[in-house]
Structure formats: structure tokens, C-alpha cells
Design a protein that fits this description.
two-stranded antiparallel ribbon; transferase; disordered N terminus; GNAT_dom; Acyl_CoA_acyltransferase
């Protein structure tokens, strides 16, 4: 599916979606006003539900992360390559479920560190989908990028999950 035109995020300023390249979709976003607004789910609410927000790879078990990738339909990845990818990541957020000590949601962004960034690998364990974790990681990664002054933000997305992103803009 091809989306083009101007859309509005409920928690952000207008976002522009451009023609995708290859069979994946890259959505280019321009954030005119980089104002931090409240999240759909607060950090406190996430914590009260047993979720821990993590912004570093410390304590991130790559085999467990890989199992989330596989659960959402990505091919199994070599954990050594995941490690290299994470070393070249500018911003990341993962959510750990306190009961199991496993990642249940993840997103990361790469870019030039100044002007541009692309958000990649947004995944939520199917068991935890529908409770706002996908939106939670996207909102926080975008905010971190905006805080760094990066306002040209694109999202790399599989076509089959565009339905998730549509309500966000």
C-alpha cells in the first residue's frame, strides 16, 4: 500500500509520508515544532504494569530480542550482527517485562547525528501487542531524536504493519 500526503500525529506536528523504496516503506517525517508533549502512556503507568524502560543495550539479551524479531515475522538474525547494528545505533529504547526479564518491545534509530534519522526495527512481542507498547517506544525514540535537534525523521516499515502507523499519522 502506498501512502502519500499530509497526516497529523495526535502527539506531534504534521508528518509527510513519501513514496516507498523497494518493497518496504520509508516514511519521511518533518517535525516543524519540536515540543515535548505528554506520552500516550506515561513512564509511571508503564512501570505500574510491570514494564521497565531501557535506553541502553546493557542487560539486553540478544537471543531474547531475536526471539521477538522472529515472533513478528522477521527472519532469525545472527546475534553477532545484531550486536554490530546496535553499536551503530544513535537512539534505542526497549521495554523489559519485569516478570520475565525479557524484552517485549524495541525500536532504534540511526542517522547522521545532526539532521537526519531513520527509525528501524520497531517490534512488539505478539503477546503484548495492543496495550500501547509500540506507540510508547516510537514516541520516546522520536522525542530523544528531537531533543538532539534531529528533525528530519523517517520510519522504515514493512508494508504489512502500516495499519499500526496509520493512527499515529
Amino acid at each position: 500500500m502506498l501512502l502519500q500526503g499530509k497526516f497529523t500525529l495526535p502527539f506531534r506536528s504534521p508528518i509527510r509520508i513519501r513514496t516507498p523504496i523497494t518493497h518496504h516503506h520509508i516514511h519521511k517525517c518533518s517535525f516543524a515544532a519540536a515540543t515535548k508533549q505528554s506520552y500516550a502512556i506515561s513512564d509511571e503507568e508503564l512501570q505500574s504494569r510491570g514494564f521497565i524502560l531501557r535506553r541502553t543495550t546493557e542487560d539486553l539479551n540478544l537471543d531474547h530480542l531475536n526471539s521477538v524479531f522472529v515472533a513478528v515475522g522477521f527472519p532469525k538474525r545472527d546475534t553477532d550482527k545484531i550486536k554490530v547494528a546496535l553499536e551503530h545505533t544513535d537512539s534505542l529504547l526497549w521495554i523489559e517485562y519485569e516478570t520475565t526479564k525479557r524484552p517485549v518491545a524495541f525500536a532504534r534509530a540511526t542517522g547522521d547525528g545532526v539532521f537526519n534519522a531513520i527509525i528501524w526495527d520497531v517490534v512488539v512481542d505478539p503477546t503484548f501487542q495492543g496495550v500501547g507498547l509500540g506507540k510508547a517506544v516510537i514516541e520516546r525514540v522520536v522525542d530523544e531524536l528531537l531533543e538532539k535537534g534531529i528533525t528530519n525523521i523517517a520510519l522504515y516499515s514493512e508494508p504489512r504493519v502500516l495499519g499500526f502507523y496509520r493512527p499515529l499519522g
